[in-house]
Design a protein that fits this description.
The chain has 62 residues and is mainly alpha-helical. Helices cover 40% and strands 6% of the residues. It has helices at residues 8-17, 47-61; strands at 23-24, 38-39.
Length: 62
């Protein structure tokens, strides 16, 4: 897979370095995958933790 600016798999290493891992969404498609998608876990986290995680993710993907 190429390292395009909006490729969730290519950007995962940066996200992990910012302590906010995710699962690339492409493997979950039944048809043509969209490499820009990702899956986040948020059901067991408080709103403040989610906000912090989104802030970290934003820095990781900038």
């Amino acid at each position: 897979m190429t390292s395009a600016p909006h490729d969730a798999t290519a950007l995962l290493k940066s996200a992990v370095a910012h302590d906010v891992p995710y699962v690339p969404g492409a493997p979950f498609f039944t048809g043509t995958p969209d490499p820009r998608t990702l899956r986040l876990s948020f059901t067991t986290h408080a709103p403040a933790e989610i906000a912090e995680g989104l802030d970290r993710l934003g820095r990781a993907l900038a």
